Amino acid sequence: MGQLAYQSLRDAILAMDVYRPDADLRLDEKGLATALDVSRTPVREALARLEHEGLVQIVPRRGVWIVRKSKAEITEMIRAWAALESMAARLICERATDEEIGSLRALFSTFEDDQVRLRLNEYSDANLRFHQRIIELVRSPVITSLVAGLLVHVRGIRGHMIGEDDRAERSIVDHMHIIEALEAREAELAERLVRKHALDLADDVDRTPARWTETPRPGDNNPGAGPQRKRRTT
User: pTM here?
Assistant: First the structure.
């Protein structure tokens, strides 16, 4: 029961956009136990494990909140992601089939250059799938495990940044160059392009005022409150 509760809660948190302005970040222990059809003991144990992993914060007598990272923490996480994803790109050149690499190009086959801004939410979904697919294709349990702890935060921030300035248009150009390098099996080039793509995001985050990265104060009635923006996921 304890492992089931832990895995269910962890999967649910990782699937969230925790930086969405209206995200409900408070977790109700009793409600979770009811939803999972378990007693409160395995839920408490699961929350303790999740706190150890840095996904939730438990405040005695006040409650449990899903954690948002500060801007400084987020930029460090993106830089860690850059290292992992760029290594994955190098290994894809050695391990993936032509068909598997072709699946990356297929993600963007319906987007013309002038349609990205008009179909931003659709593009964002494809963009997220692109980055996840790079990790999948390498078939490395170690890289997959390390990336899992970063995904919930990196994905959410990408969602908020994709609409800034011309980032979406730059993004699809970067992706096409990455795909071309992978198709040509140019490992060093693919690694360098993927790393630069992620580090550019870190630089953009660092330059952008971002109230949505502030950690909610325990006890806030609406810890997800912030500037109202449409949800985007990249």
Answer: 0.74
